[in-house]
Write a structure and sequence with these properties.
Elements lengths: L2 H14 L2 H7 L4 H15 L4 E3 L4 E3 L1 H24 L7 E7 L1 H18 L3 E7 L13 E5 L8 E8 L1 E5 L1 H5 L14 E5 L6 E6 L2 E6 L1 E6 L2 H9 L4 E5 H9 L4 E3 L4 E2 L2 E7 L7 H20 L8
Parallel strand pairs: 3-4, 3-5, 8-11, 8-12
Antiparallel strand pairs: 1-2, 5-15, 6-15, 7-12, 7-13, 9-10, 9-14
Helix pairs in contact: 1-3, 1-4, 2-3
Family: Belongs to the LysR transcriptional regulatory family.
Protein name: LysR family transcriptional regulator
GO molecular function: DNA-binding transcription factor activity; sequence-specific DNA binding
């Protein structure tokens, strides 16, 4: 039995603490996972995993050998990848991303990715909520946040700027907006949460926190975008969604001299030590792709 594969399977079980979860993640049967783990233990001459009815954990020998085994797998994997042409890299990546970023930004990136890695299969889980990446078998998540989960590895790759927007029809029948406080007299569309709807705006050294009225809320940006397009009120939208509609005259950018809070965009994954070649290829590609996008699409001059 292949020693490298056996070592990879054992390391994955050590991470998931479940033979069943590893079988699902690696797309193999549970008995096959068991055989690979037993082969690795026989090869290394020691019992490395303690099995109980509820949980799988490392033995003391497993804890001692884990880092050394991981180092050996990493070196072997890097050697394989360096000798392997990109078109020969095969495997599967399960990716979690918001719907709005997924269709507007990720899909164009994946078109380029597939040209370089045509044998890598991709499954996209589109939702605007935090996920348990291990339990839901997510390899890589794209999240917009200034407070990433410290239990995950976070690689910043871009910055998300936002705009306040409303349709011309809504503005024609509503009070004028010349300063942030005017927002309190308007219908606003907010992101679903359990607290107050407070929009933070900044202009040079001035900072204002405006509590707005949100009779309509949603947990997804494109829903709020289309609410504004339908004339329901003002919404806060990421530039990558709003700019196209502003150029077409369907939305108006409100208070352009005021800057909304910027958010960092991250690639998140559970561990540096358990990256398959397809996942590693996806991370490296997206970091390079969005670095190029940032250089070619600078923020509007009014933000500077």
């Amino acid at each position: 039995m292949d020693k490298l594969t056996a070592a990879k399977v054992l390391l994955d079980v050590a991470q998931t603490e479940s033979f069943t979860a590893t079988a699902e993640r690696l797309d193999m049967s549970r008995p096959m996972v068991t055989r690979y783990v037993e082969a690795a233990e026989n090869w290394l001459g020691s019992r490395l995993l303690q099995r109980t009815t509820r949980k799988v954990s490392l033995t003391s020998a497993g804890e001692q050998l884990l880092d050394e085994l991981q180092s050996w797998v990493d070196q072997a994997q890097q050697m394989e990848e360096s000798l392997m042409p990109t078109k020969a890299i095969t495997g599967f990546v399960r990716l979690s991303v918001s719907m709005s970023f997924g269709f507007s930004q990720l899909m164009p990136a994946l078109e380029k990715f597939r040209q370089r890695y045509p044998a890598i299969k991709i499954d996209i889980d589109a939702q605007d909520r935090a996920v348990d990446m291990v339990a839901e078998r997510i390899d890589l998540a794209i999240r917009t946040t200034n407070d990433p989960n410290p239990a995950l590895i976070g690689r910043p790759f871009s910055v998300c700027y936002s705009k306040l927007v409303a349709s011309p029809d809504y503005l024609a029948r509503s009070p004028s907006i010349t300063q942030p406080q005017d927002l309190t007299h308007h219908a606003c569309l907010g992101y679903k949460n359990f607290g107050r709807h407070v929009w933070q705006l900044q202009q040079q050294n001035q900072h204002q926190e405006i509590e707005v009225n949100c009779d309509i809320t949603a947990n997804e940006a494109t829903v709020l975008l289309h609410g504004s397009l339908a004339g329901l009120g003002i919404s806060m939208q990421p530039d990558y969604l709003a700019d196209e509609w502003i150029k077409r005259g369907k939305l108006v950018w409100l208070l352009p001299e005021w800057q909304l809070m910027t958010l960092q965009m991250y690639l998140l994954y559970p561990s540096r030590k358990h990256l398959s070649p397809p996942v590693r290829a996806m991370i490296d590609f997206l970091l390079d792709y969005f670095a190029d996008q940032t250089h070619t699409n600078q923020p509007n001059a009014k933000r500077e």
